[in-house]
Design a protein that fits this description.
Number of domains: 1
CATH topology: Ribosomal Protein S5, domain 2
CATH class: Alpha Beta
Number of helices: 2
Radius of gyration: 12 Å
Strand content: 25-35%
Shape: globular
Largest sheet: 4 strands, mixed
Oligomer: single chain
Distance between the termini: 19 Å
Strand order of the largest sheet: 1-2-4-3
Amino acid sequence: MELKNAVAGTLESGDIMIQISSGRGLEIDLQSSVAAQFGSQIKAVITETLKGLGIEDAAVKAVDKGALDCTIRARVTAAAVRATGKDVWK
């Protein structure tokens, strides 16, 4: 699946900014002040969400500001919709 560059989210407290572009396999670059405690969980949520949307090849840059799992899923989904042009809410 071809991906355009896409962004969702903000750098506000409690949010996460997700940037998606074409890649080989799933490559996740995570920047977070809580990466030591929650980095593996954040990456797992990103991976599960993308795979659930049928995306297996993407480069993802995530800048976390304390987002909850539901927010991470929402931001990844929004970025994926923008990157693919495929509306998952229909």
